[in-house]
Design brief:
Blueprint (H helix, E strand, L loop, with lengths): L19 H8 L7 H13 L3 H21 L4 E5 L9 H8 L4 E6 L2 H5 L1 H4 L7 E6 L5 H8 L10 E5 L11 H10 L6 E7 L5 H13 L9 H5 L6 E2 L5 E2 L21 E7 L3
Helix pairs in contact: 1-2, 2-9, 3-4
């Protein structure tokens, strides 16, 4: 497994404004965040107190989806928008099913790079790598990931809580199309995505918070979410709220019965 270069330039972290990955870490109870992230996180809690539960529900979906995919025979994963490591990480779940599983993580946030060592601790039989790149730099991602993954064989493309930070103007649909086009038949794509459909007023207020900080937030409707899967077969149970996707594959998140999650999730399969 390769080790990313943690040089001073790469690790220049901007603490002058909140960052979505660090806020997510704060909601999950992590320590890799700064006062500016906590401040905005508390503003969001004033609008919707259940945000931490929603964050954990989203994380639990990733675990269940990975278990399901591993049971289908998936042995290669490309996780883009990895975020700050929170155990169990995707590779730990996947390699529990098969220690020889190969995983490539990708993120552009320097704080994720700083903790990449935690992401790279896998089984001796498997392979793990980390790519520091912007999600929109598809060529760089595929080029680096191709050193660990065999794109002539099926790969799981994991886009967990990523695409609502990429606007239509920045090419959200185009980047998904380019990534999917590089996948072999039999590959899968996993997406979780913020929506305003379930909590419209709260979503409007959060959107205003993001705009005030010059941050991108693009919650999408069910129809807009479904468009990411054009050309793919969406597996059962289809497009649902995170907590409704194969709940039998994991333990329920404490408090999830009292909230409706803020996003859609789905898994799609690429045919021949």
């Amino acid at each position: 497994m390769s080790r990313p270069e943690n040089d001073a330039t790469a690790l220049r972290i901007d603490t002058s404004r909140p960052h979505p990955a660090r806020m997510y870490d704060w909601f999950l109870g992590g320590k890799d965040n700064y006062p500016v992230d906590e401040a905005m996180g508390r503003q969001m809690l004033a609008v919707e107190p259940a945000v931490p539960v929603m964050a954990r529900v989203n994380r639990a979906f990733m675990h269940r989806a990975t278990r399901w995919l591993a049971a289908q025979g998936a042995r290669q994963f490309l996780d883009i928008g990895t975020g700050i490591p929170t155990e169990p990480n995707l590779h730990q779940v996947a390699q529990e099913a098969d220690p020889a599983t190969r995983v490539v993580y990708c993120d552009h946030d320097p704080i994720v790079l700083a903790h990449a060592e935690a992401l790279l601790k896998g089984t001796p039989e498997g392979a793990i790598d980390y790519v520091q790149a912007d999600a929109r730099d598809v060529d760089a991602i595929l080029g680096q990931a191709g050193k660990t993954l065999d794109f002539d064989r099926p790969v799981v493309l994991s886009l967990i809580s990523l695409l609502h930070f990429v606007s239509d103007e920045d090419g959200a649909y185009e980047l998904v199309d380019r990534l999917v086009s590089a996948l072999a038949p039999g590959s899968y794509m996993v997406i979780s995505h913020l929506t305003a459909d379930f909590h419209p007023e709260e979503a409007r207020k959060v959107d205003e918070m993001y705009k005030a900080k010059a941050l991108t937030l693009a919650p999408r409707s069910r129809e807009q979410f479904a468009a990411f899967f054009r050309g793919l077969e969406i597996v059962e149970p289809g497009i649902v709220a995170a907590e409704a996707w194969h709940p039998e594959l994991g333990e329920p998140v404490p408090g999830q019965d009292d909230v409706i999650s803020a996003g859609y999730v789905a898994v799609g399969r690429k045919g021949a």
